[in-house]
Amino acid sequence: METAIAVENLKKTYQPKTRKGVEVKAVDDISFAVPRGEFFGLLGPNGAGKTTTIGVLTTRVMPTGGTARIEGLDVARNPVAVKRRIGVVPQVNNLDRSLTAREILLFHAEYFGVAKHAREAQAQQLLERFELTERADEKVIGFSGGMVQRLKIARALMHNPAILFLDEPTTGLDPQSRHAMWDLLSELHAKGQTILLTTHYMEEADLLCERAAIIDHGKLLALDSPAQLKRSVPGGYLIELMARSGLNDSFANALRALPGVVDVKQEQERVRIYADRAEGLLANAMRLASEQGVMVTDAHVAEPSLENLFLHLTGRSLRE
Amino acid sequence: MTATMLALLHRDLRVARRELQYFLLRVGLQPLLFTFIFGFVMPRLGIIQRGYTEMLLPGILGLSMTLSSMQAVALPLVIDFGWTKEIEDRLLAPISISGVAIEKILVGILQAMIAGLVVLPLAWLLMGVHLSLGLVEIIQLLVVAILSSWLFAAFGMVVATIVEPQQIGLVFNVLLAPMIFFGCAYYPWATLHVIPWFQRAVLLNPLVYANEGFRLALTPQMPHMSPWLVYGGLLGFSLLFTWLGLRKFAGRAVD
Ligand SMILES: Nc1ncnc2c1ncn2[C@@H]1O[C@H](COP(=O)(O)OP(=O)(O)OP(=O)(O)O)[C@@H](O)[C@H]1O
Ligand SMILES: [Mg+2]
Predict the structure, then answer these.
(1) Among A111, B49, B149, B200, which lies 20 to 30 A Cα-Cα from B230?
(2) pLDDT per residue as tens digits for the range A275-305
(3) Is residue B164 less than 8 Å (CB to CB) from chain A?
(4) How far does the CA of residue B162 sit from the closest CA of chain A (Å)?
């Protein structure tokens, strides 16, 4: 498969601005590659280095070490050629406040040399798809967070970029807008768009990304599919059984002996089983229960969250 | 010039046209007041001689044009880099960073030329100065106008990229007041020979070359600086500030 993004031993160290300041290793020796068509996630807490990494890949930040390539082009050496191939949705609102929503799209396409007819049609189509037609001819001051975010994505798509970069596209959106955004991004990916997204929401990476890199303090801690990442957390799966009667220690001990089980916690009417994997475990537990006369009224399997994974990798919770 | 740069110019001109009335007010008001007091009121009162207006006209045009181009470049840049980060969308356009910066300088020059087109006839009519512009003077006027606008557009870029955004108001005041008063707008440079050290010191002020250039083109019969010094000063400072401005712009644009 063709490589869309290749990052090798990338480093970015910010020098202290004052005498007393300390240098910041915003990106500290990160390597990864993204094949064409992949939906790739960079997951990490505030200050992890997500925006800096995107900054290097989108020519906005000069790396202090290593290389970053977009479709084989060195970002630091060929910034103009790289810019032609990428669409960028930055974390901050950098929409042109002097222009209307439609003009923002049209001028953006004009910067990229899209012909007049094509850009007008494209703008209309994107405004419709992103539900912005009603206020298309207003200036963007006063647009809601969701509208700003949608317009930023529409703008990035105006020149049909090979790779789309999205820096925390759903931060600050209400749940409804967030779900709409997820649908939209899934739709783009389904059409073959290569996407690199950053987020500090576990469920977002889990839901959207084919692979995700977990970064913290500028270092890459893990990189895999969300499912594999979850599997790597010992005891990350949780099976909860609710029972009306018959719960006792021998049942708990029998559960502990089942393959894959890491720990079992028993309360009055509830048993929590922590396990490395879930396959077959629920069936085994139910068989044990009927053998021992335990009346199970409800069962619930919770997949391990990336939240647990982060805790496992760093010893810190994601959300401070 | 690339298609991308033309598109950036198109965007800036669209925005400028939309704000034309404010622009006219900004460039027109001060010269209007100036010409009214110095060209009409004071001569009537007999405080200054009629001939003084001839000395003032080039200075007023020079000040209007240079301040226009400086503002046209510096103010949006300070806001962009300091707060809104709007310029990011242009930095992501497929053009080099210097390309974006050069386009900003071109916009400054264009705005200054428009300011000149507004102010020159205004001041001319109100002051009733007799101008006899032949082909040579008109060509000289154009060259001086373009060079002066370029110089101050580039200077605006240097100021906007060096100064911290919080300090820009202060810098404008502290920098502009001496530049204007020592800028030979209200007196010809040639007459300063009575204070030799001052005459030499003001040569450090780029505004002197702009005002003397307009004096050279508009009122050649009055004392003025030699053309070589005028063009040398304008071109030298333009190149210096462009080089410095582009470097500092790139420093601000890329982390
Ligand atoms: N221009 C800069 N100068 C100095 N330090 C910087 C600069 N930009 C970022 N940093 C520092 O680099 C580190 C990584 O910042 P970065 O913005 O990449 O994190 P992030 O993962 O995007 O965080 P967030 O989730 O808050 O957006 C932080 O410690 C930050 O303070
Ligand atoms: Mg960030």
Answers:
(1) B49
(2) 877 778 888 888 888 888 888 888 888 777 7
(3) no
(4) 15
pLDDT over 70, % of chain A:
97
Ligand 1 neighbours, Cβ below 6 Å, are: A 14, 24, 26, 44, 46-52, 91, 200; B 255
Determine the Cα–Cα distance for residues A63 and A56; give it in Å rounded to an integer. Answer: 6
A205 touches A44 (CB < 8 A): no
Query: What residues contact A133, with CB distance under 8 A and at least 6 apart?
Result: A127
Q: Whose CA is nearest to atom 26 of ligand 1?
A: A46
**DSSP letters of B42-103?**
HHHHTSS-THHHHHHHHHHHHHHHHHHHHHHHHHHHHHIIIII-TTHHHHTSSS-HHHHHHH
DSSP letter for A117, please.
H
Q: How far is it, in rounded angstroms, from Cα A83 to Cα A96?
A: 18
Contact A178, A170 (CB under 8 A): yes
What pairing do the DSSP bridges indicate for beta strands A24-35 and A3-14?
A: antiparallel
Which among A82, A208, A94, A204 has a CA at the least distance from the CA of A155? A94
Residue B116 and residue B72: Cα distance in Å, rounded?
Answer: 14
pLDDT band at A269 (very low <50, low <70, confident <90, very high): confident
Q: How far apart are CA A28 and CA A30, in angstroms?
A: 6
* B141 and B214 Cβ atoms separated by less than 8 Å: yes
- Tell me what the pLDDT averaged over chain A comes to: 88
**Which of A52, A70, A73, A107 to mutate: most B Cβ within 10 Å?**
A107
Give chain B positions within 8 Å (CB) of A157.
none
Distance A68 CA to ligand 2 centre (A): 18
Measured from the alpha carbon of residue B254, the closest ligand is 1
Residue B90 has pLDDT above 80, yes or no: yes
Say whether pTM exceeds 0.90: no
pLDDT confidence band for A319 (50 / 70 / 90): low
Cα of A163 from ligand 1 centre, angstroms: 23
Looking at residue A316, its pLDDT comes to 66
Distances in Å between the Cα of A1 and the Cα atoms of A33, A34, A165 are: 11, 10, 20
How does the average pLDDT of chain B come out, rounded?
87
pLDDT of residue B103: 95
CA A28 to chain centre: 20
The answer to whether the Cβ–Cβ distance between A98 and B15 falls below 8 Å is: yes
CB contact at 8 A, B202 and B184: yes
- pLDDT above 70 covers a percentage of chain B that reads 99
H or E stretch at A67 = strand A65-70
Q: Measuring CA to CA, which residue among B223, B188, B184 is closest to residue B205?
A: B184
Section B76-103 average pLDDT: 89
Minimal Cα–Cα distance from B87 to chain A, Å? 7
What tokens does B97 get? 């960073």
Residue of A12, A13, A24 to mutate, ligand 1, most atoms within 8 A of C-beta? A24
